[in-house]
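User: Sequence recovery, please. Input:
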């Protein structure tokens, strides 16, 4: 028996091997792996604050003291009232892929606090995870007050000057 090697073309009886084309990928992989995205604590706090305020039964965010200081800050020109009021009562700790949130809320009198807290938790988790891609590992909710129907607002209406 004789071993022979065949170089060159193929005969009609031999199958052709597919041609291999060298493709050079530019950038080294998927677009998602070509850099790093960091999300600031304040971004997550804003998202969570807005999501919590959307829940029926949440009267306000933050403790009475922080709301009072916030009302004063809102009235001072250049006091930064817009950002502060959105994040009032929200504290976020953001890692590379996970986040944890602490919320302080005031609920309306007559609502189920357990139901409101559950709804806030669901709404906040859904909003933060959808918008940031971070996994929300916990949402701690502290109910600091109940707004009674006959109580005056902590933040009086603005007067025209």
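Assistant: Recovered sequence (161 residues):
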């Amino acid at each position: 028996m004789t071993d022979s090697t065949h170089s060159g073309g193929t005969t009609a009886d031999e199958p052709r091997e597919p041609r291999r084309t060298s493709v050079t990928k530019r950038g080294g992989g998927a677009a998602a792996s070509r850099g790093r995205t960091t999300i600031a604590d304040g971004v997550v706090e804003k998202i969570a604050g807005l999501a919590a305020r959307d829940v029926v039964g949440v009267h306000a965010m933050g403790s009475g003291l922080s709301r009072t200081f916030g009302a004063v800050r809102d009235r001072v020109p250049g006091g930064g009232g817009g950002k502060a009021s959105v994040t009032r009562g929200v504290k976020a700790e953001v890692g590379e892929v996970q986040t944890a949130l602490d919320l302080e809320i005031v609920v309306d009198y007559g609502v189920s606090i357990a139901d409101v807290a559950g709804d806030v938790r669901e709404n906040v988790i859904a909003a933060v995870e959808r918008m940031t891609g971070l996994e929300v590992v916990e949402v701690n909710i502290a109910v600091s007050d109940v707004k009674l129907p006959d109580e005056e607002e902590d933040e009086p209406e603005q007067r025209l000057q």
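Confidence is low (pLDDT under 50) at residues 156-161.
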